[in-house]
Structures are given as C-alpha cells and as structure tokens.
Amino acid sequence: MNSVKKSTAVEKELKIMKTLDNILTTHLYRLDDQHVLQPIEEQFEKSRQAMLHELKTTRDALAKQEIDLVEDYQISIALLEEASDEQFEFWKNQLKREGELF
Q1: Scanning 5, 9, 23, 63, which has its CA 20 to 30 A from the CA of 36?
Q2: Which superkingdom does the taxonomy of this entry point to (predicted)?
Q3: Which residues contact 30 (CB under 8 A, 6 or more apart)?
C-alpha cells in the first residue's frame, strides 16, 4: 500500500473514531450550568448492549425527524456491534479519563 492510500485509510479511521467519540460523549455526558461537560455516572455503568439499544432508539427517532445525525449513529452502532464488551469498557474509561477516545 502506498503512502497516499495509507494516509487516506488513517484519515478514514480517525473520522470514524471521532464520530464514535462524539456520539458516546453525547450519551455519557451532560452540560452543567457553566457549560462544562459532566459525566453521567448511570450512563457510564451501562453495558455495551444497553448502550447499543439506546443508540438504536435515538437513531430511529432522528430518522423519523429526518435529522442528519442518523449516519453518525449508524457508524457508532456498527462499531459497538463489532466491539467486544472489553473494548467498550476501554472506550468508556478512556472517555472518562481523557475526555476523548484518542
């Protein structure tokens, strides 16, 4: 694989992970009165399957309202369906510690 193809593949992977980062942040955090993100502990306790259910429910509601985020939710759902429970826990812990996945 030449360097241009590698660069394109890396950029695509980064975009996918940033999408997951954004969607998970939306569901795992809330904005406080000072507009600072605060973790929602109950959300961090959810299993991968519970989060998948929540994302699918949100995706379906957005689709009915014809809101552009449906594709981002579908990308995130696909990643979570492919991920192991351990990988999901790692991502949640990474978000909680660092505020982002990468």
Answers
A1: 63
A2: Bacteria
A3: 37, 38, 40
- Residue 85 token pair: 């429970």
Q: In whole angstroms, give the CA distance from residue 102 to residue 95.
A: 9
Enter the tokens of residue 6.
């590698």
pLDDT (0 to 100) of residue 1: 53
Q: Which amino acid is at 70?
A: V
* Per-residue pLDDT tens over the stretch 80-98: 999 999 999 999 999 999 9
DSSP 3-46: HHHHHHHHHHHHHHHHHHHHHHHHHHEEE-TTS-EEE-HHHHT-
- Specify the pLDDT at position 2: 67
